[in-house]
Structure formats: structure tokens, C-alpha cells
């Protein structure tokens, strides 16, 4: 099946030429892309978070396979919903889904279920795809939409992802889609987000999960980030880098009620 865009014309331009021009403005042509195990990118409207995504993905060598993990904002479908058959459409064209990686994930973890319903209206994964298309037009996509997972389930899923990737014998980039603190002052958001980002920089998925829950940090993509971090550690990650941190006040001028955005690379 083909998954149609759900937020083209809202989160990002619906016209191909406008979309290409906007993304090109966020990419950094002087960057020297390097292999990475995982990236953490925001998923707001491009005018708010596109610059962060562009800085991160410009620095990453995009392989032929990409597994994008995002939170389920809609509450639809399975708790770990993968799509592995058909393609995804964006204004930039079709992206083939990856049946081989999808099957390997389902074999490695009973949590992972084939399910298009969770993806039908979800923006958190969709907004990553045009950036990836611009950087690697021929990549194969595996979207994994996550909700309501305990930490032990996140850890198990991370191990399963590492096992599935290992079975393919070729690199797969993990992209964890998340925004940071929502609708607090910029000062409050930064204070809370530094706690969560510290756990990512320390390669501590369990600490991230419990810090976000215990400190009431409204990081919507804590599950995909925890899972991606656990998988990256299983695959041998040794370092994480904070590439950019900003908030919506930089665009709106309102620093009393911001949404914050961070971008990181894990190697």
C-alpha cells in the first residue's frame, strides 16, 4: 500500500519546489557527513524545528536503510507499529518501505506488529522523510511508531532492533523523532531538558526514561529516543553529541510558552 502524506501543506510545504528550497536552506553544505548509529531530530513544523533537523542530518552519512522511530500522538494502532510493505509518499516522491528489515524486526521482537493504522495520521515520522529524501533519494524506509512501553519493554525492543540490524549485514541509521519540553517558559524548559539531554549524552537509556517520567518532562518522543539509545548501545555506541538546542520563541518571540527542540548524533 501507499501511505499518503498527512501533514504536507501544514508542517512543511506541499509543493515540491517550495519544499526542496526550504530544506536546502536548512542543510549545511559545508558539513562533512560521517557514519552514525543514531540521530535524534525534532518533528515540529519546519519553520520551528527544521534548522535543528538540518544541522543534525547534514552531519550524518545517510545509508541505504533508515529506521525512523516516532511517538504515537494519535493513540491509534499497535504499541510498536511497523510498516514494511509498499511505499510512503511525500511531495518529493515515493520512498520504498523495507520488507526485509520489517520482517527481521517482527521476528526479533513480539512487540513489533505490522500495522498501518498507527501511521495513517502521525506526523512525527513523516516530517523526517523529506530531509532524508533530499540527502539520500534512494534510501529504504522502516517507520516504527511507539506508545505505552515500560522501560523493560524499551530495553527489549532496543536489543531486538540491534539483532535485526545485525542480521542484515549492512548499516542502518536510527532516527529518533522527538520534541523536548512543551508549553513552559524557555528558562524552565531548558532546565528540564538539560536533565534529559544529559542522560542521552551519557548513553543512559534507563536514566533517560526515568528522568523524563520522574521530573515530569514533556518530551513527547522519550520512548523512541530511549529505544534508539538502547539499540545504539547494543550496537557499540561510544559517544553522543548535542548538535543544536533551541525553542519556538526564537521564531514567535514568545518565551513564556515555548516548545523546545534538540538534535543529537550517537556514534
Could you explain the architecture of this structure?
- The chain has 10 helices and 12 strands.
- With 267 residues, the protein is of the alpha/beta class.
- The longest helix is centred in the middle third of the chain and has 18 residues, at 151-168.
Number of helices: 10
The rounded Rg comes to 17 Å
Uncertain segments of ≥5 residues (pLDDT<50)?
Answer: none
Number of strands: 12
Main sheet properties = 9 strands, mixed
The share of residues in helices is 25-40%
Overall 3D shape: globular
Quickly give the structural class. alpha/beta
Distance between the termini: 34 Å
Mean pLDDT: 98
Strand content: 15-25%
Order of secondary-structure elements: EHEHEEEEHEHHEHEEHHHEHE
Summary, kept brief:
The protein is an alpha/beta fold. The chain has ten helices and twelve strands. The model has no long low-confidence stretch (mean pLDDT 98).
Task: Set down the secondary structure blueprint.
Elements: E1 2-3, H1 16-26, E2 38-41, H2 46-58, E3 65-71, E4 80-82, E5 87-90, E6 93-96, H3 99-108, E7 112-114, H4 123-126, H5 129-135, E8 140-146, H6 151-168, E9 173-177, E10 182-184, H7 186-201, H8 205-214, H9 222-234, E11 240-247, H10 249-252, E12 258-266
Parallel strand pairs: 1-5, 2-9, 3-8, 3-9, 4-7
Antiparallel strand pairs: 2-12, 4-8, 5-6, 10-12, 11-12
Amino acid at each position: 500500500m501507499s501511505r499518503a502524506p498527512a501533514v504536507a501543506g501544514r508542517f512543511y510545504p506541499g509543493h515540491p519546489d517550495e519544499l526542496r528550497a526550504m530544506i536546502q536552506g536548512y542543510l549545511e553544505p559545508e558539513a562533512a557527513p560521517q557514519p552514525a548509529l543514531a540521530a535524534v531530530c525534532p518533528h515540529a513544523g519546519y519553520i520551528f524545528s527544521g534548522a535543528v533537523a538540518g544541522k543534525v542530518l547534514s552531519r550524518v552519512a545517510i545509508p541505504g536503510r533508515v529506521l525512523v522511530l516516532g511517538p504515537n500522538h494519535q493513540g491509534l494502532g499497535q504499541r510498536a507499529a511497523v510498516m514494511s510493505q509498499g511505499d510512503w509518499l511525500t511531495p518529493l516522491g515515493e520512498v520504498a518501505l523495507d520488507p526485509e528489515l520489517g520482517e527481521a524486526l517482527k521476528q526479533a521482537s513480539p512487540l513489533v506488529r505490522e500495522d498501518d493504522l498507527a501511521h495513517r495520521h502521525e506526523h512525527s515520522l513523516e516530517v523526517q522523510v523529506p530531509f532524508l529524501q533530499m540527502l539520500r533519494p534512494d534510501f529504504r524506509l522502516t517507520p516504527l511508531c511507539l506508545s505505552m512501553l515500560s522501560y523493560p519493554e524499551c530495553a527489549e525492543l532496543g536489543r531486538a532492533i540491534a539483532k535485526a540490524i545485525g542480521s542484515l549485514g549492512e548499516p542502518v541509521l536510527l532516527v529518533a523523532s522527538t520534541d523536548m519540553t512543551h508549553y513552559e517558559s524557555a528558562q524552565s524548559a531548558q532546565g528540564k531538558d538539560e536533565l534529559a539531554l544529559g542522560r542521552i549524552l551519557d548513553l543512559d537509556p534507563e536514566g533517560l526514561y526515568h528522568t523524563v517520567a520522574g521530573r515530569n518532562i514533556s518530551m513527547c518522543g522519550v520512548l523512541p529516543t530511549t529505544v534508539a539509545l538502547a539499540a545504539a548501545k547494543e550496537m557499540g555506541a561510544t559517544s553522543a553529541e548535542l548538535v543544536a538546542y533551541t525553542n519556538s520563541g526564537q521564531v514567535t518571540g514568545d518565551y513564556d510558552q515555548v516548545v523546545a527542540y534538540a538534535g543529537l548524533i550517537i556514534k
